[in-house]
Amino acid sequence: EMLFVHHGKGVLLTEYGKIDFSEWDYLIIPKGTTYQIKFDDYKNNKLFIVESDSPFDIPKHFRNEYGQLTEEAPYYERDFRVPEFTEPIDKIGDFRLRLKVRNRMFEYKLPHHPFDVVGWDGFLHPYAFNIKEYAPKVGKIHLPPPIHLAFVTQHFVICNFVPRLYDFHPDAIPAPYYHSNVDSDEVLYYVHGDFMSRTGVQEGSITLHPMGIPHGPQPGKTEASIGKTETEEYAVMIDTFTPLYVTKNVKETMVKDYSQSWLQKK
Fold this sequence. Notes:
By secondary structure, the protein is mainly β. The protein has helices at about 220-225, 250-255; strands at about 1-5, 10-15, 15-20, 25-30, 35-40, 45-50, 90-100, 105-110, 125-130, 150, 155-160, 165, 185-190, 205-210, 230, 235-240.
């Protein structure tokens, strides 16, 4: 699982130890990890949760032949926060676990606390990474969105849009060009700031651009971008390799005419 903490702070408790988290942290939790989230305040928190049936991994081209991050990677090893050791919770009682297996939820009871662990060995563990630590790339002309790659799985990738300078060619147009993702669905979760190519979106908005449908800046956004030198936007993007299916909840909340929003009205 990948939890993006949009609002809130607290602690992630696992059998590996604890990780303190705050706003705009990614929490990467490996499959099979028992965890508990404790917020400092339960009145104002928001999570963007992404699940995968394969691990969230660092792209291979960010690493050298020995597995170390290269200087071309958008982050460093020290940017990843690992669990801090906590004393075993040696308690007997009725402890309930929620297990998710093959997209179904089950409840399982233990007679002892699941975090009664004296230690662990290996390299599989949860970790935290804050989106503000991500170092973006800029170019002479507009770079395609995949340049902002952060994590990969077998079925999709995670990209970060963060504050950065715009293209520096004298005649460059900062707004993205119209394009069609012929092999992937594109999901954007808007975190903060004014997203240059879109109007009508706000913090916490989610957009879905299905594969094969051309899309781009809304009318007037391309012209308005000319002369801009930088952006302060934050957003999380997911590009999938297989089609997504919308749920009933999505159908009840989606903006009906969004798919026509980048067309010029006559």
